[in-house]
Amino acid sequence: MKTFFVIIFLIISLSVKSQQGYAITFKRAELTTNIISKNKFKFVYNDSFAFQYYYQGNDPLKKQHLYSKKLIHHSIFINRTSFLTYNEVDANIKLLIVDTIKPSTWMPTTTTKNILGYTCKGALQVSPTNDSTLIWYTDALGTGVGFLCLHFNLGQPLEVYDQRTNRYFLATTIEKGNYQFNLPKAPIYSVAAYQQLTQQLLNKPSTLSIRFYD
């Protein structure tokens, strides 16, 4: 019988040497309502890898310096050199979905603003559906490759207005430290393989609910 999906049980052990990087916490709001979400967003990264996740209340990984060892629902592990993302998307079945960050074009603006003591420049992107994403970034904190699964290499975003997802992000704290990232021990699927899994093995429509940014 032909196999319609591929399960990668051989875990890619990406044990990376601890590198200096940053952990940035963001508050989030809906653009149309300006209602601040209870969910905070955190982006932890070094030159090679990153890990991003949402949480409410106290940060469950506050004291972590080894990231991605523990899965959090809808967390994303990012290989910033190969532009691959590994998404945890199913609360019932612990697995990862691998996807590629797609290239994108950004138009720099001529204005600047100060965010948490950093001088930030603006950059704009307009999607084929005329939805715009405006990012205020600093070049003092490395690049933002992988941030919100965006192919953004001008600097690290500290404020984002994203019409595509109706979301607003603003950095509230920036911590400097040495961070290490390991891909969690879990089966790895392509997007298509995961859709086949949910449709055929679980006998229900695909539950792929995470947004893959393009």
Description:
This protein has 214 residues and is mainly beta. It has one domain (19-201): outer membrane lipoprotein receptor (LolB), chain A (Clam). Helices cover 5% and strands 43% of the residues. The protein has one helix and 13 strands, in the order E-E-E-E-E-E-E-E-E-E-E-E-E-H. The protein has one helix spanning 191-201, and strands spanning 19-30, 40-45, 49-55, 66-67, 76-79, 84-88, 96-100, 107-115, 118-126, 132-138, 156-162, 167-181, 188-190. Strands 1, 2, 3, 4, 5, 6, 7, 8, 9, 10, 11, 12 and 13 form a 13-stranded mixed β-sheet that branches. A hairpin with a 2-residue loop joins strand 8 (107-115) and strand 9. The protein starts with 18 loop residues before the first strand and ends in a 13-residue tail after the last helix. The model is unreliable at 1-16 and 205-214 (pLDDT under 50).
Distance between the termini: 35 Å
- The total number of structural domains is 1
User: Beta-sheet strand percentage?
Assistant: 35-45%
CATH level 3 topology: outer membrane lipoprotein receptor (LolB), chain A
Question: What is the correct CATH architecture?
Answer: Clam
Radius of gyration: 18 Å
CATH class descriptor name = Mainly Beta
Number of strand elements? 13
Unreliably modeled segments: 1-16, 205-214
What coarse outline follows from CA principal-axis ratios?
globular
